[in-house]
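seq/struct pair 1
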Amino acid sequence: MKAAIRRSYGSPHVIKVEEIQKPTLKDNEVLIRIFATTVNRTDCANLTGKPFIMHLMLGLTKPRKIVLGTDFAGVVVATGKDIDSFQVNQRVFGFTDMGLESQAEFMALKPKDNLIVIPEQIDFAQAVASLEGAHYAHSFILKSGIHSGQKVLINGATGAIGSALLQFARTFDAKITATCSTENIELMHSLGADQVVDYTKEDFTRGSRKYDIVFDTVGKSTFGRCKPILKKNGTYISSELGPYSQNIFYSIFTPLIGGKKVKFPIPYPLTFTLPYIKSKMEKGVFKPLIDREYPLKEIAKAYEYVLSGKKIGNVIINVANERVL
């Protein structure tokens, strides 16, 4: 089978699409034919080994898993004798941030909280685009304690996390301000933003509006810069550690002091997030954004594009030649 391989940490240039042996199925595994996967921020961290903490989790000097990929949508083609929760021909999708070796034609997986059945009306591209960013977005929602009537700002609302978060926050009847570039203003309104700040023309941290919550889904601001736009007991949540890992320390100490505070969105277990995502898709209140699609043979180009910071929503890798609903 063909798979996207990297044997060392580095730039997209270290990725090669190679022919490797198809996985051997164990009794407690399912064999999945991969139809689609994405290249996302987590994949890029796994590729580059940055921040350095990724080395501690994936392999100190080189990655233990050489096949890339953290998410997938596909079809079960075989099951081990101990499997009774999934059947052959079921359409499934799943995600694990430490890597699933899913950027390949086939994948063997021990099913647990990382695998779920795709809703009938959802195709493979939509299914796989609903995973990584939405997983982290749901953790933002749970950590924030958001409720009806609150005023929230989402910085980076066109990204995979931000666009999912905007749609999830909309279900709480929050008053949402989103930041984006000029060409995406209408898109933000279509997803449910009440106000839009064009970051190419205005610094949102210098605005006059006050917010109960500032979600920094791209980690390009700081608690210090956002404090002036937070209400008295407002909350700042970022997807990144911040300079010198300050968000970890702030999340420990600011709640003790009182007033404006930082919360750090440590990801919730997939047992919480995947069923939540699936239910929102089934109800039609969450539709993931898809920027562009690449074939597996051009996956290095997909990584280059994602690392450029220009993507909107999700970048899809079509592994199989056919698209089946």
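seq/struct pair 2
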Amino acid sequence: MISGILNIKKEAGFTSHDVVAKLDATGVLPVCLGKATKLCDIIGDWDKTYEAVLLLGKETDTEDTSGKILEEKEVTVTEEEIQNIILSFQGTYDQIPPMYSAKKVNGKKLYELARQGIVIERKPCPVTLSIHIKKIELPYVTFEVTCSKGTYIRSLCRDIGVKAGCGGCMAGLIRTRVSSFRIEEGFTLSEVEEMRDRDTLSEHIIPVDKVFSHLPAVFVKEKGEKLLYNGNPIAVDLYEKEPSAERQNANEKQEYIYTVGDRVRVYDSHHNFIGIYQLQENQVLKPYKLFL
């Protein structure tokens, strides 16, 4: 069985999860295969970067240009004013999620209620943003935003429009990055089919442990592998720590400094990736996410 992540460059018309196709971003979509499917419950927590197009002067029920127009106003802000308004959303702010979204309230997805013409009160949620404005051609503004989990770019466009006094909605959205997965390194579905037919697809599957390359690695000794394979905690005398990269280059062995709560990549003595473990008292490693 193939295990790993395939970096898909999702095109318009294809859905991910249970989000309505017309409201979903095109762009990067990490697809987990085999044992890598155990990553699915944490992918949503990863930071993402989008390139968005804001249209000022128009409000819609879906908060993007595919929806029903609710109100249109003249755009009177200057380029400098809209730039300052957009950048004022950097940092953390409380965002009200859109009605046309997969967010659940009392067990019901909001877009299911919206399709019935029902609008309910939604609690604002804190989101964290970093914004870079790429182009201003009023009434359109193109900007790049890196955001935390739970951010709705359509709602950001809505809020920018409200602050500008003319309303606004999202006219375009491309997801350019999910964690370390970037759009320029992704493949369209047609490209994946071609690689499959040429039997070269496996060359482009990203190993699971590469996702956690920012974490230090430890290697369990052969005498501790029975415990390892059975998912047991690993005592400090049963594993070896990875020397730091700087000292490796200098041919000097120096271990990372580990503290309780730290997470590490764990391998067996043959360097097969086992999973992510968390450091406990007395340097004991406890399984956090296993990929056996």
